[in-house]
Amino acid sequence: ATLTAQREAALGAAAITHDGLIRMRPHAGLTVRRGEVSWDGEALEALLGELTVTERALREGTEVGGKRPTGVVLVENLGAYIDLARPTAGWLVVHVPGWDVRAAEAVLAWWPRRPAVLFGDLDPNGARIRARLRQARPDLRWCVPAWWSEYRERHALPKAWPAGTPLEGAPALVRELAAAGEWLEQEAVVFDPRLPQAMAEAADP
């Protein structure tokens, strides 16, 4: 949440805390360490269904590392995050819960030289999330394959794009949707067999 100056003044000396949750589908070789204890990320995923780490744990000494991923794909919606087929087993898949991007920014900082791809809705909020994440990673790519336009006739929904929506450098399809007052949900293309390759190509255009 964003606190106005008036609300911050009302809080006085109270400490404002934040503790986001990082939900990941780990790649082979990812490890989690706390002191002398280390866990295998894939083993934790097999046991728990995914790997989750709180920002609080990271502040208190938990470290995520091990083998570097081939790339990192950030997925906006929970259903798409669960069902997404990654480009290869070497990719790390991370859930970005809407505007709460601080946890995603932490993940991007772990491997600054690995490709990072955003896969989300093609709507004003998706454009804002991309702009915010690019402040931390200017090389962040937006996965918007040209063939996604094939879904427009059946799946596009009406939506006004507010003035000032950050569209600089946005893919052509996104700009076309903004001009037409339409948007597309990412779930429509999650099971398209072309998507894994499109994510890999977005990372290395």
Q: Provide the β-strand percentage band.
A: 15-25%
Structural Rg: 18 Å
Strands across the major sheet, in which order?
A: 4-1-7-6-8-9
Q: Biggest sheet, open or closed, and with what strands and sense?
A: 6 strands, mixed
Mean pLDDT: 92
Order of helices and strands: HEEEHEHEEHEHEHEHEHEH
- Helix content bin: 25-40%
Shape: globular
The count of DSSP E runs of length 2 or more, i.e. the number of strands, is: 11
Tally of helical runs: 9
Structural class, please? alpha/beta
Report low-confidence residues grouped into runs of 5 or more: none
How many angstroms separate the termini?
35 Å
Q: How would you describe this protein?
A:
β6, α4 and β7 form a beta-alpha-beta unit. By secondary structure, the protein is α/β, with parallel strands linked by helices. It contains nine helices and eleven strands. 34% of the residues are buried. The longest helix has 13 residues. The strands form three sheets. Strands 4-1-7-6-8-9 form a six-stranded mixed sheet, with helices on both faces. It has a three-stranded antiparallel sheet with strand order 3-2-5. Strands 10-11 form a two-stranded antiparallel sheet.
